[in-house]
Specification:
single chain; 178 residues; alpha+beta; 8-stranded antiparallel barrel; globular
């Protein structure tokens, strides 16, 4: 199964779960995200394991590119269990234009129409955009991203403190292999 098919399954499951759950207080997003600074390549440092990335064994990255229509082109890549590069292309849109920290992402397009949007909330962001902590309202999914393949111990501790303060269990995160 390729990355895109797995992402479709993930989005369908997450939408179903979201409608049926009582939510505790949602994570708080950062006050402001400069999308021009946020755009570019990010390396996955850690994540809560999930079905749609199960086949990814190393080298997971996310590339964001601003589009003229205000949306963001997304290319998620990884090396799969066969040693092949697997890409998933999608679109992100801003949900909260005040902070730019709440986005939704879709990797499913039918006849040019994006379907099955999933939450992408920036809940932690280094002042210099060296790392980002991304979550969802349900806290079922979470990622630590970095501009470099590794984070210093100090910066990694900062990200795990953010997760803890946002109601995440840092022990649910696994380190990614770059």
């Amino acid at each position: 199964m390729n990355y895109k098919n797995v992402l479709i399954i993930f989005l369908l499951i997450s939408i179903t779960i979201s409608f049926g759950q009582e939510m505790k207080s949602e994570p708080k997003v950062v006050k402001k995200v400069d999308l021009n600074r946020y755009a570019g390549l990010w390396y996955e440092i850690a994540k809560i394991p999930n079905r749609f990335q199960k086949h990814c064994i190393s080298g997971t990255t996310a590339q964001y590119k601003l589009r003229e229509d205000g949306k963001i082109e997304v290319i998620n890549s990884c090396i799969d269990e066969d040693g092949e590069r697997d890409d998933a292309e999608g679109i992100a849109k801003i949900v909260d234009g005040f902070s730019n920290a709440k986005l939704e992402v879709s990797f499913v397009s039918i006849l040019g129409i994006q379907l099955f949007w999933g939450d992408y909330w920036i809940i932690g962001l280094d002042d210099n955009y060296e790392y980002a902590v991304v979550g969802t309202p349900t806290r079922k999914y979470g990622w630590i991203l970095s501009r470099t393949p590794q984070l210093s111990e100090e910066k990694l501790k900062e990200t795990f403190e953010i997760l803890k303060n946002q109601g995440y269990d840092p022990n649910k995160f696994e380190m990614s292999i770059q």
